[in-house]
Amino acid sequence: MAEIAIKGVAKRFGGFTALHQVDLTIADQEFMVLLGASGCGKTTLLRIVAGLERPSQGEVWIGGRRVDHLPPRERGIAMVFQNYAVFPHLSVFENIAFGLRMKKLPQQEVERRVNRTAELMHIEQLLKRYSGQLSGGQRQRVAVARALAMEPDVILMDEPLSNLDALLRLEMRAELKGVLAASKTTTIYVTHDQVEAMSLADRIAVMHQGRIVQSASPVEVYRNPAARFVGSFIGNPPMNFIPATKAENGSWTVAGLTLSGPKSDKPRIEFAIRPEDVDAGGEGLRATVRVIEPLGPHTLVTCDVEGGLFRAILDSNASVQVGDDLRLAPKPDRIRWFDPETTNAL
Amino acid sequence: MSVATETPVAGIADAHKAGDWLLIATAVLLCVWVLLPIYLLIVNALSSPDQVTAFPKRFFPSFDLGSLSFFINFAGVARALWNSVIVATLTMILAIGFGAPAGYALSRFDFPGKGTFRFLVLMTRAFPLPLLALPLAVMFIRTGLDDTAIGLALVHTTLALPFAVLITFSLFSCIPVELEEAAWTLGCTRWQAFRKVILPLALPGIAASAVFAFTISWNEVFAAAVLTIENRTLTAFLLQSLGESPLYLKFAGGAALVVPALIFIFAVRKYLFAMWGIANR
Description:
heterodimer; A: alpha+beta; Rossmann fold; CATH 2.40.50.140; 2 domains; 6-stranded mixed β-sheet; 5-stranded antiparallel β-sheet; B: mainly alpha; MetI-like fold; 13 helices
């Protein structure tokens, strides 16, 4: 059992605040992804959990034990680094065995575990080689095997796939998911790649400027962004936002369309919709087509709505021309509203 | 039309050619500047006394070992050689013992005054030794360190330390900090991670830096001449006794000093380049 609890953790580097009062609980065996743009504090948070960085305030608990004063080696964690950190002076076998030897396990047990994890990561034929003789993907496998061999309660991964080329990344992503699910460890995985986050996570914590903006399942984060930032960061292309003005009896006017929306005493709020959640024709938002990009399964249409950019994903059969005036009807159950001042969902 | 387009191209090609020639000429000049004295030294050291004073010079030495063997058997040379080795070895141990931890600290930790410290390390090289020699000699006599190997080694350590710090600093900086962090997460204390991961990777470079410190001490003559009387090092001994010796013996003594130093420096050259921030892989 290794539940991780982060309680009120803050980190300041001189005058710069990298993390503001972060609270996060990760359940036993959960796969938690920290997602955010570079500089949002996600790596700092991971390093605080690992013990490579000390929090300026707050507590870190792993498996019911307070660990923020402990060095990394006493936390029951294993970590995979972005640049793999495979020891160049040791063979692959000795790399994987490194942590086991530190634990002073008997030779027989070391060999058993190294062979088992090497087999799991498909590197059993590389055990005698050195880091310099391996490709990036193979080094990545060694780094993961080295972490798994420790049989840790918690595995921490810092952008482990970001140095691999696109095809290899896809392959490793699926493999990692399988291996980690089978190993039954609690995982914290840091990435800036939303596709990686969506595909791997049980739960995603979206971070922005040193705060966790939302932590929820991938579908929830996608469908119901808690803040404007989440909607604009996740999704490719991201969510569309259009200003809405107050109309009669609690409804709102959005680009020539009147919709019933949330109660608010503000005169203007923001209407939001995902590009795939609009249909061409009927009662809809007034849009002028600017660019048409046929992508095969569907067509990406960039329009002008209320003087702002609006992206819509339409059926590839839709016959639209640049300069056309379109009516884009939003699916009622997919409409979201945001407060333009707090940027939170309404 | 064609003339108008060709002329500037030809002009640029000419300029390139001239630049190439200038580069080659400079390189040749510098090589001659460095290599010619060494060549003459070795040719003369390996020639018989008659040939040294003869003219014209022979292009190849006659490999007459007479003056070298006379020099080696000269009274006091063996003892001076032994002193040189002891002082240089002590210097090497002290310079690495103090320099490597300083280099590690510079590469791994941010502390106030880090930039100033690095600058000061270099600044110590700006102190002229003759200026320090007299007060040092007085102080050494008072403390009883004069005319001892350890006393001279301390002075040589001061000279070698800046280089030891800078070389090991660049060495440790080339080793990614993630390797150390990985070792910590795999169960190492800070010291274990250093011993099991950083040290094996840095060892060749540290050895090179040690050899360099050895060479600095080996070549140093001023402090050695001022601070030792009975226990002269080879350089100080030669300065004293070869001034009055015949030319062929001077050559033999010079070669005995220069050749070991050259071999040492040649062996560690790639790490000395690393000192100036050029990658050492």
